[in-house]
Amino acid sequence: MRVAVVGATGAVGTTMLAIMGARNFPADEVVAFASERSAGRQLPFGQNTLTVEPLSEQAIAGFDLALFSAGSSISREWAPRFRDAGAVAVDNSSEWRMHDEVPLVVAEVNPEALDGHQGIVANPNCTAMVLLVALAPIERAVGIERLVVSTYQAVSGTGQKAVEELRAQARAVLEGAELPAPEIYPHRIAFNVIPQVETFKDGDPYTTEERKVIGETRKILGRPDLPVSATCVRVPVFTGHSESVNIRTREPLSPEGCRDLLSEAPGLAVVDRPGDALYPLATDAAGQDEVLVGRIRTDESAERTLNLWVVGDNLRKGAATNTVQLGELLIERGLLSARA
Length: 340
Known about the structure:
Blueprint: E1 2-6, H1 11-22, E2 29-34, E3 42-45, E4 48-51, E5 53-54, E6 65-68, H2 72-84, E7 88-91, E8 120-122, H3 126-142, E9 144-153, H4 160-175, H5 208-221, E10 228-234, E11 241-249, H6 255-263, E12 268-270, H7 282-285, E13 291-298, E14 305-312, H8 316-332
Parallel strand pairs: 1-2, 1-6, 2-5, 6-7, 7-8, 9-10, 12-13
Antiparallel strand pairs: 3-4, 9-11, 11-14, 13-14
Helix pairs in contact: 1-8, 3-5
């Protein structure tokens, strides 16, 4: 069993390696790939270290599985190359998610979608991932008629440079120093809230991130006509995406029934004692693989409608953990053939 990790030096890639080591991922050999400038860099992997290699046609031969977290352009070029060389590619970028022939999979939600793969499997957007872990049990139990979600997204979702930008700006504000000009975001992120995640394209009033949440939610649930509205916001938090979710259900579901339902669902932890100031926090979700759900209450302005507060680590369950889980599922289901 030979496994490639492509984009191994990035925030998600290093997290992926750490999770693989902690979960004793069943690989005989793991090879770390990154850009030419990172070649030769040493990365920790369990009790060992990996030496980063650059991608090349010769280097990708002989792999069973390739886990990608290197951006859309790299995935567009190299995922098909790994597939054609006999590996199954699990991609964490947005490149393949909405292709009809590519399964878009959350491990706890729709693992059966892996069975029809054609050599490439897509990992959902981190925001949609956290959301779907909480939504799927409700959809299965009582059905969902309409969904409105507002997100509060951490800067690590943009990458390590965004984390450094927040840190530098916050230090400057607190020390009364000259504020460095924003480079990663269109405005200062320190002590600010920016109602734009990713970009606006072709006059669309929704950002590309909001379109991802809408489209991927429909695809994963198998509900192409599900009414979904999303507003995605960037906040000055290092790790942990938070989401305010308003759900109208097909059949009635009480807050108590919802708590019981979600308490038994895989990948979730209910934290819901607001009178004791116990509810999901980004700082609590950071470093965890479970998605936290709380503030479960009736929306008194509408029938059969609940409000939830959902939080998850965008680097772990939102990206790296699910990628590793999909690799494990492919192995367990005997699907590690690019032509399965």
